[in-house]
Prior knowledge:
Blueprint: H1 3-7, E1 14-21, H2 28-36, E2 59-65, E3 71-76, H3 82-92, H4 94-99, E4 103-107, H5 113-116, H6 119-123, E5 131-133, H7 139-145, E6 167-169, E7 176-179, E8 182-191, E9 195-205, E10 209-214, H8 221-232, E11 240-244, H9 256-264, E12 272-276, H10 281-289, E13 314-317
Parallel strand pairs: 3-4, 4-5, 5-6, 10-11, 11-12
Antiparallel strand pairs: 1-2, 1-13, 2-3, 7-8, 8-9, 9-10
Bound molecules: fe (ii) ion (FE2) (2 copies).
Amino acid sequence: xxxxxxxxxxxxxxxxxxxxxxxxxxxxxxxxxxxxxxxxxxxxxxxxxxxxxxxxxxxxxxxxxxxxxxxxxxxxxxxxxxxxxxxxxxxxxxxxxxxxxxxxxxxxxxxxxxxxxxxxxxxxxxxxxxxxxxxxxxxxxxxxxxxxxxxxxxxxxxxxxxxxxxxxxxxxxxxxxxxxxxxxxxxxxxxxxxxxxxxxxxxxxxxxxxxxxxxxxxxxxxxxxxxxxxxxxxxxxxxxxxxxxxxxxxxxxxxxxxxxxxxxxxxxxxxxxxxxxxxxxxxxxxxxxxxxxxxxxxxxxxxxxxxxxxxxxxxxxx
Length: 318
Ligand SMILES: [Fe+2]
Ligand SMILES: [Fe+2]
């Protein structure tokens, strides 16, 4: 992309991200046992015998400020267990924001259970909220959104609330401008548990540079950041990073490949890294050991570790 192409994506003044919940599940050994059951890692998540009381989920509130001073809010993902997500929404005021129409849309990074299956916690406050999904969403996922197919782990026996708003699909492999300086990009790839495609966000912040924001980053942090340099950023390094990086989501330790990926992040020159969720604590520890500018958290509200930006913690890119 030329500099003019990149500049045509616009610019924003700041982005503030509140982690509502970064905890995908409560117990990793039980999660791994459930993945192994019902056909292994490539078998569909919709047909597996998940343990409902192990579910939590990933969801974040994003607030963007534009150069004209206007502010806009949207949600990135909606977690897994609707009771847990509803509680986190209440504890952070997101329930009221949804009910008052302050949240403009829900950006679903990908179809994985820990990012999608908590949708009922959103719909109970705002059933017509516009949803933005990546290409490759399965018919099962779309039926789930329509309320025709409850999440397999749902414990509430009342009929699911039906989504009545628009469902927008981001076109693949091209920057789609959501607000000036806020861009969605969908990466087409097969992902663990029989799903396809993940979309990420990029913010071009006035006088600061580009921030990459991700749900799980199944495309790898290398692909995410390389795409920013080639298609989004006019600088040779990147400003910030937020979200799950899927480096060591299950591991108590790092493989050589995972270590290489973390070491390679150096070349992007991030000045603020607020990684959480499936990044994994060992990966965060390695980033800190390498001197990367990791934003710590408070370790409250059930977060995995105070080393990562956790539940209720906020990062500002301005
Ligand atoms: Fe995840
Ligand atoms: Fe995922």
